[in-house]
Design the sequence.
């Protein structure tokens, strides 16, 4: 090691404990490692002194889109509220919908009634909000009144006498016809007899049927004459018998007409009253007219309804109604939607958006082993309930329910709700079913889902863009500005009051703000995740209660954070244990060429943690490739492979512009068995490669994170806090030496929100964070040698490789050409 | 006007007429008058004689279908009908306090009805098949009745006949 390097490595702490620069790279000061919210900036003692905050923090864009989507009534302007779970999408959407819904009139009620002309196509009736139930009750009363009035009409002397006349007329007509035949027969010496099952003609003598002996004694021609006469009479009688059903029909027709006459007066007066009540609703009036006609046509049902047996007329059973036990069920009203209690437009959240739950269903009942249904068994779906208002659905749930998405789109496209069972729609069930009249749909649908769902639908469903024109994009974070701290404090106060939690003092609020900034992984942002926010406040309240505190203070919030972490960091502890026991080889002291501590991050069950990972590089003469062992073994992801390929670009551009790059190098994440993805280790890999080529040892007390481009610029990476803390924890467990630290991209400094213990260690000079902008800066810090020197060594090594490769090729070229004699 | 107390009600069945409601009406009348009910099914001798002839045929009441029949079949039909009527009487009158009996006879209707009416030497209401028992009766004295005029009365039965001893 030369003097330059010695001078570079002679880093010391200043009297304040701050590290001094290495190779011009000044380690970050403690204040740069975490942007704390100063409690003293707040004027309040506890959040009880703060006013409620009506606005939602950090979601101005989404709220603007929601307000626009809710306000515009044009077709297709349905909403898709997208964003990560926990950002309060549902709550914010509901809150804004409720505000808008209050200003709107309650939507109409809807009923299904029997269609007398097409019983399998129930008729939909619309009523102003709250009037459907009263209409159903009025129809119920009407039927009761009709029963009484019609029964009374049938019990009048006029009716009884007229009916008896008709029945007697029919009887006499039969008797007369038979009697005439009997007389004709008698005149010819033949008697008409009644057998148990019919009529018979018998030859008589002296008014008595002739005996077999007398018959035998008759001359043959006389017998034949009798037979001929009887045959002729039988013909005539058969003709009369054939006529009888027609006479019965005529008589029934007369009775029916009589019934109509008797019923009409009673029915008209009752139904006309009801029609007058609904004079402004032509649809309802039309229905009442059809009820009127049907009641008059089926007056017998009212006459005989009280009898247990079927109504009989002329010895024949009258037809029974198609549905249900009661013959009056056809006049019932199925109130599908009753908005009598609605104070504004309805908001429906359907948690289980299946096909039937959306479009409604038609139930069946078992009757004599068969499944039957009628209009009373039509049940409303979420689209019915939300009609005239708003329907909120979880996008993923709709998409995972069979045919639900198609049904929703069909309803929105056609502007009507068509209730049809799935089995019927797919033609796989052939039980008796209905085709209810579609109900016009006036609705605003709000789908709530993650961003990928929105983008996938947009890409793959051509109808989606037409039906969901408004996207409300919920952000997971918001800018952190000093002036927004008080607003955030009011949000904390509002939540604490609403959830009946203890108030927070100013230190508690400040700690909450710090933690929510930490959630974003950026000191200049605050998390808008209502889930994290709510969980932290509820758990802080719990710990404050356990400690007997009346007010939630910083220590309660800190306890909540610590316990949250301890509940989830078992795996992190296991990794650390393996490192400390030497199972996972990580050095935190000494120096070694071609070996470096990279930093990886893992996320398990929502818990993110960092850990060091040894990366090694080996080089040799070759044909110019950097072999990524992770990729070769199919453990590396595409982004990681890209990062490694960039290294080849850097090497070729920096060192082999005029010579072939005659290098073969291999890179590996040691003891990594679960796959590697991302390019945040590419700078570490390059340092390892350069170290191996220059044979310059790298300080193992340092760890590195950051990606690199082909020019050698170090670029920002994610989860910088977790990565630093992961290495810090390993170092601390093994004992902090003061030599240890982490190299991070300079562009990540703004993201730092490190734990207090890390900041304290830095302040005490026991740990250091080096922001680097380029590979040159990084290699100098890691090797303790000037970058120029390292580059020279690398260039020399690569030049040597190139020369050797050339010599190798020339040697091969100089070999004499020898002809091989041809042998037969 | 002297009040006549009916002591016996003789009613007949025939092979054809509907019997729906008739028994109930008779039971009501018998309870009201405290009379005895006598059901009489007369196997028409003319039918049996016809059945013995080679030209015996019937036409169904409802179907108008022509069927041949003989004596054995006719007898079975009449027996079955008599059983059915007996069961009907048991079912309808069995649970009432009305004393009742059911008889099967063969021969002339007029002859058997007159015979049954004259048995008790008391006012007897004769209700031929198909007659409304609640209709006002035709009142005749037993001594005035001959087989000839009683046949006339029975052949066009619109009203019951009250036979006084």
Sequence:
């Amino acid at each position: 090691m030369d003097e330059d390097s010695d001078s570079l490595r002679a880093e010391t702490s200043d009297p304040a404990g701050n590290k001094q620069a290495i190779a011009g790279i000044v380690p970050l000061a403690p204040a740069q490692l975490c942007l704390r919210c100063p409690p003293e900036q707040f004027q309040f003692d506890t959040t009880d002194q703060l006013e409620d905050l009506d606005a939602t923090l950090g979601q101005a864009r989404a709220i603007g889109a929601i307000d626009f989507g809710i306000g515009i009534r044009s077709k297709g302007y349905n909403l898709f509220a997208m964003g990560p779970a926990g950002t309060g999408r549902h709550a914010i959407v509901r809150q804004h919908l409720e505000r808008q819904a209050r200003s709107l009139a309650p939507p109409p009620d809807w009923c299904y009634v029997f269609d007398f002309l097409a019983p399998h196509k129930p008729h939909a009736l619309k009523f102003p909000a709250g009037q459907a139930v009263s209409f159903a009750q009025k129809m119920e009363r009407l039927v009761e009144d009709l029963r009484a009035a019609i029964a009374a009409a049938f019990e009048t002397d006029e009716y009884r006498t007229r009916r008896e006349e008709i029945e007697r007329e029919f009887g006499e007509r039969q008797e007369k016809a038979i009697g005439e035949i009997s007389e004709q027969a008698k005149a010819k010496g033949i008697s008409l007899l009644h057998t148990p099952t019919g009529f018979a003609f018998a030859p008589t003598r002296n008014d008595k049927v002739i005996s077999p002996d007398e018959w035998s004694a008759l001359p043959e021609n006389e017998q034949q004459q009798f037979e001929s006469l009887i045959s002729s009479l039988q013909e005539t009688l058969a003709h009369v018998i054939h006529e009888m059903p027609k006479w019965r029909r005529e008589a029934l027709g007369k009775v029916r007409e009589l019934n109509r006459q008797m019923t009409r007066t009673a029915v008209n007066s009752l139904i006309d009253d009801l029609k007058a009540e609904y004079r402004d609703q032509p649809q309802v009036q039309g229905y009442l007219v059809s009820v009127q006609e049907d009641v008059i046509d089926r007056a017998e049902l009212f006459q005989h309804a009280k009898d247990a047996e079927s109504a009989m007329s002329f010895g024949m059973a009258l037809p029974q109604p198609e549905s249900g036990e009661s013959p009056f069920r056809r006049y019932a009203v199925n109130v599908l939607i009753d908005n009598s209690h609605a104070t504004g437009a309805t908001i429906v959240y359907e948690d289980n958006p299946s096909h039937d739950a959306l479009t409604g269903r038609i139930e069946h009942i078992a009757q004599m082993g068969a499944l039957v249904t009628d209009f009373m068994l039509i049940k409303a779906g979420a689209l019915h309930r939300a009609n005239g208002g708003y329907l909120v659905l979880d996008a993923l749930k709709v998409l995972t329910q069979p045919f639900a998405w198609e049904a929703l789109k069909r309803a929105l496209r056609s502007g009507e709700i068509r209730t049809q069972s799935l089995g019927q729609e797919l033609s796989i069930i052939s039980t008796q079913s209905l085709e209810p009249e579609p109900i016009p749909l006036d609705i605003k649908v709000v789908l709530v889902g993650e961003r990928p769902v929105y983008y996938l639908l947009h890409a793959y469903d051509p109808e989606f863009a037409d039906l969901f024109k408004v996207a409300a994009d919920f952000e997971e974070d918001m800018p952190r500005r000093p002036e927004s701290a008080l607003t955030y404090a009011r949000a904390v106060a509002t939540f604490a009051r609403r959830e009946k939690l203890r108030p927070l003092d100013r230190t508690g609020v400040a700690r909450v703000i710090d933690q929510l900034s930490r959630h974003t992984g950026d000191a200049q942002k605050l998390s808008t995740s209502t889930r994290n926010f709510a969980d932290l406040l509820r758990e802080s309240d719990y710990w404050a209660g356990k400690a007997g505190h009346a007010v939630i203070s910083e220590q309660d919030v800190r306890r909540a954070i610590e316990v949250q972490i301890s509940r989830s960091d078992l795996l992190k502890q296991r990794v650390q244990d393996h490192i400390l026991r030497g199972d996972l080889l990580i050095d935190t002291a000494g120096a070694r060429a071609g070996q470096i501590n990279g930093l990886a991050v893992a996320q398990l069950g929502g818990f993110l943690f960092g850990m060091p990972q040894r990366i090694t590089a080996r080089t040799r003469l070759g044909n110019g490739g950097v072999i990524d062992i992770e990729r070769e073994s199919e453990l590396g992801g595409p982004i990681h492979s890209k990062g490694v390929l960039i290294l080849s670009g850097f090497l070729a551009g920096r060192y082999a512009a005029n010579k072939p790059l005659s290098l073969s190098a291999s890179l590996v994440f040691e003891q990594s068995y679960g796959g590697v993805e991302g390019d945040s280790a590419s700078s570490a890999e390059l340092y390892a490669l350069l170290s191996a080529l220059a044979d310059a040892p790298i300080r193992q007390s340092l760890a590195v994170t950051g990606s690199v481009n082909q020019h050698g610029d170090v670029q920002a990476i994610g989860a910088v806090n977790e990565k630093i803390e992961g290495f810090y924890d390993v170092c601390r467990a093994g004992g902090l030496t003061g030599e240890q630290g982490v190299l991070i991209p300079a562009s990540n400094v703004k993201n730092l929100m490190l734990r207090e213990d890390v900041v304290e260690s830095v302040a005490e000079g026991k740990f250091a964070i080096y922001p680097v902008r380029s590979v040159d800066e990084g290699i100098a810090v890691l090797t303790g040698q000037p970058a120029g020197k390292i580059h020279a060594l690398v260039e020399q090594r690569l030049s040597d490789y190139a020369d050797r490769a050339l010599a190798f090729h020339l040697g091969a070229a100089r070999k004499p050409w020898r002809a091989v004699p041809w042998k037969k | 006007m002297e009040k006549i107390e009916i002591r016996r009600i003789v009613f007949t069945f025939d092979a054809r007429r509907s019997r729906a409601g008739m028994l109930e009406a008779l039971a009501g009348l018998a309870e009201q008058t405290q009379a005895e009910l006598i059901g009489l099914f007369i196997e028409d001798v003319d039918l049996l004689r016809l059945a013995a002839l080679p030209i015996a045929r019937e036409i169904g009441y409802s179907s108008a279908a022509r069927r041949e029949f003989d004596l054995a079949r006719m007898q079975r039909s009449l027996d079955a009908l008599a059983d059915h009527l007996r069961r009907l009487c048991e079912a309808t009158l069995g649970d009432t306090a009305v004393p009742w009996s059911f008889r099967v006879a063969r021969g002339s209707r007029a002859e058997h009805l007159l015979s049954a009416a004259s048995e008790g030497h008391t006012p007897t209401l004769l209700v031929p098949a198909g007659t409304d028992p609640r209709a006002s009766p035709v009142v005749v004295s037993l001594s005035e009745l001959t087989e000839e005029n009683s046949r006339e009365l029975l052949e066009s039965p619109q009203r019951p006949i009250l036979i006084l001893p």
Notes: The longest helix of chain B spans residues 71-93. Chain B touches chain A at residues 14-16, 18, 44-47, 49-50, 52-64, 66-67, 69, 74, 77-78, 80-81 (CB under 8 Å). Chain B has a mean pLDDT of 83. Residues 8-43+76-164 of chain B form a domain with the Rossmann fold fold (CATH 3.40.50.620).
